[in-house]
Amino acid sequence: MTFYYLLKHPISTLSEMGVCSSRRNGEEVVGAMHSIRSFRSMKLLPSQIRRQRSLVLELEEEETNSWKAIHQTGQIPCERSGHGVVLVNKTVFLFGGYGGIDPIHLSDLHCFDMEQRRWSRVRDSGTVPCPRTAFAMCWDQRSSIFLMGGTDHDLQGLADQEVYEYSINSRQWQRMPTLNRGILELRYFGRSANCYYNSILFFGGGVKGGRFTNELLKLDLETRRWDRLETFGQLPCARYKHQTLLLEDKLCIIGGGCYLPPQEEIDVYILCLKTLEWTYIQTTGDIPEGRAAHTCEYDAQENAAYCWGGFNKSLVPLQDLYKLDLNTYTWTLLSTKQNKDVPPCRSFHASCFYQGALYSFNGSDGEKRYDDILRYQIRRSPAPLTTLSLRCLVEHLKVDEYSKYKSQMSEHLAKKFDDMLNRVPFDRVPYS
After folding, report:
1. What is the pLDDT of residues 380-432, one digit of tens each?
2. Is 407 helix (H, G, I), strand (E, B) or coil?
3. Residues 121 and 106 sit within 8 Å (Cβ to Cβ)
4. Mean pLDDT, rounded, for 57-81
């Protein structure tokens, strides 16, 4: 849909096309159209400048099957590895890890707005967890983020094996008292955590000295009692820094190792949470090499998992991306070092899947740590009409005219306009 099409067609026609899905959207589009029409007779900027601004704003129109570093704004967290992220609706929460100019273990909490691409530091409040890396972290799909375990510089696992709960509504940490703590024998780190109904499932982990586990622990969030679940079948070997996916009533384990991956090819296991029986999955296709400290994210629309990075049996950091079809258990190689747009190797990073794309946060290549956000676009949806309308304003107006047209917008539309302006690095894009 072109700029000139937006100028010519009335809002009723656009509504009939299904472009405006609500009254509020319709009102926003009317406001944006009014602003556009009021300057259409003005002399526009040179086409070269318009194109430069347009290239910056084409974040909604990326080609699929390609990597891109995302432009970030706000209070950007320092470079780090061994941190954790959870996606809560349209916001990513990032906690802890190891990094900074003079690297230290961290306990800072940041949130990233996926729409505005803006970071903000969350003010410490309540009983904040101590600095740590390689901890377990998950979201209960309601209003709380849970965190447990991890390690610091001695790699012995933290003495603090408490469970911490972060309330998204009150923005406050609290320590959760729990029962039957005697089953927490060792200070394992590198565990996984998944919220399952009113409980959290913790799998695996390891400590310095070569002690690793394949135990499955359950923390009941109502009784706050720990239990060790007795499983059977084709059990996975002990491991840490693996990845888990919760697929309705199944827990899927992908990769990991007893520090080093246990075999040449990555392994996949599925636990039926109703029967507690493990099944080894014989995968086919472009099977990735064994790895740990990678990430795997689930795409519900395609019923697929995307596996990115990690390190192999030779401690070589990896930069390949694979898709696992969870209907056929077939692997497909999507991106490798031969691709021109592939980012540097990455391990001990964190990731999430959002609106048809895999997002990777920070991590290490074995020599340096990063403060970047990488995106691999699997598929995309058309940008909302209000976004297209505002892009027309940003691309075609002179900078000193922005305030004039912003004053004609609703408060909500003006905020979206500001967010879009903040994504244009005017130090590299001409003013006029």
Report:
1. 766 667 777 777 777 777 777 778 778 888 887 888 788 777 766 554 444 43
2. coil
3. no
4. 82
Specify the pLDDT at position 400.
74
Report the residue count for the chain. 432
| Structure tokens given for 219 | 């923390």
CA 389 vs CA 26, 327, 357, 392, 398: distances in Å: 12, 40, 24, 5, 16
Output the CA torsion sign for 58, 61, 62, 63: negative
Q: Is 363 left (phi over 0), alpha (psi -120 to 50) or beta?
A: left
Residue 281 pairs with which residues in a beta bridge?
A: 268
User: Which pair of tokens denotes residue 340?
Assistant: 């021109």
Residue that has been written with the tokens 């029986």 in this structure: 277
> What is the value of pTM for the model shown?
0.79
Instruction: Flag whether pLDDT at 13 surpasses 80.
Output: no
DSSP 3-state of 386? helix
Whether the Cβ atoms of residue 331 and residue 323 lie closer than 8 Å to each other: yes
Compute the C-alpha angle 298/166/271, nearest 5°: 35
Amino acid occupying residue 41: S
Pair 372, 362: CB distance under 8 Å: yes
67-377 — its CATH code? 2.120.10.80
% of residues, the chain, pLDDT over 70: 82
Pinpoint the residues of the chain covered by CATH 2.120.10.80.
Answer: 67-377
